[in-house]
Amino acid sequence: MNATVKITFLGTGTSQGVPLINCSCAVCSSPDPRNKRLRCSVMIEVNGYHLLVDTSMDMRQQFLAHPFPKIDAVLFTHAHADHIFGLDELRRFNYLQKQIIPVYGNRETIDHLRRIFGYAFDHEMVQYGIPNIEGHVIDGEWCIGTVPVIPVPLLHGEDEVLGFRIGRFAYCTDVNGIPLSSYDLLYDLDILVLGALRETKHSKHFSLHEAIAEAQKIRAGQTYFTHISHILDHERHGQMLPENCHFAYDGLVLECAAGDMDLKINCKQNQEIYE
User: Fold this and answer.
1) What are the boundaries of each domain within the chain?
2) For the whole prediction, is pTM greater than 0.85?
3) 211-248, pLDDT tens digit by residue?
4) Do 78 and 109 meet the contact criterion of CB atoms below 8 Å apart?
5) Burial of 243 (0-12, 13-18, 19+ CB in 10 A)
6) What's the CATH fold of domain 4-273?
7) Any idea what the Cα angle at residue 106 is, between residues 101 and 110, rounded to 5°?
8) How many CB atoms lie within 10 A of CB 208?
């Protein structure tokens, strides 16, 4: 199987987006469309599956700009507002697909979703007018259909969050620390997506300089930075990046080989269904 992983960046901005409300800085007022950043999310297409990472609060706007026919599953990195508050938009896909959509996250994330969106859980059949989801707690590598997904534990301040690896692609946003054991999960990547908030240090996010250092340590073929604030200008700061590092931007589409995914099709089905 010579699968390809296709990645569409739906949003590359911080929790406030770019431009910020009532900000007239050079980036917020820039005419460069690459400086217009909705809240972070990506769509991953592989083996005929559409896997959405996070339901950003800009999800409706993102899907109107970049239509996709279906969502087979949602992978949640964590439960902060900018990554989950578009979840209600899943109801349109429940209607179109006539299916309950599985969502995956760590225990804390699924617990938060359950408290905030309790009305979306526990449906035996699709209930129209509301989102219909089935929560799965991630506990190691698993498969969505024929697609093996490897969770990558990360630190976001004191919070334990997840990145995801699919084939030779990995997505790691909202991170300021990578546990030693997670570096092995990021070996031999064609494309790494990594959060890079701003030039100065932050308590919960890699600065640009820290993200560059991590990229050079991980040594992916190409690294694309996301979760970018209005401090960073795509063109000006982009000229300062190393050769294999780039700023992602909304609407950017990348592709890479899935590698040896076909050798892992029988990976264990070890997520716990949330009750």
Assistant:
1) 4-273
2) yes
3) 999 999 999 999 999 999 999 999 999 999 999 999 99
4) yes
5) exposed
6) Metallo-beta-lactamase; Chain A (3.60.15)
7) 50
8) 22
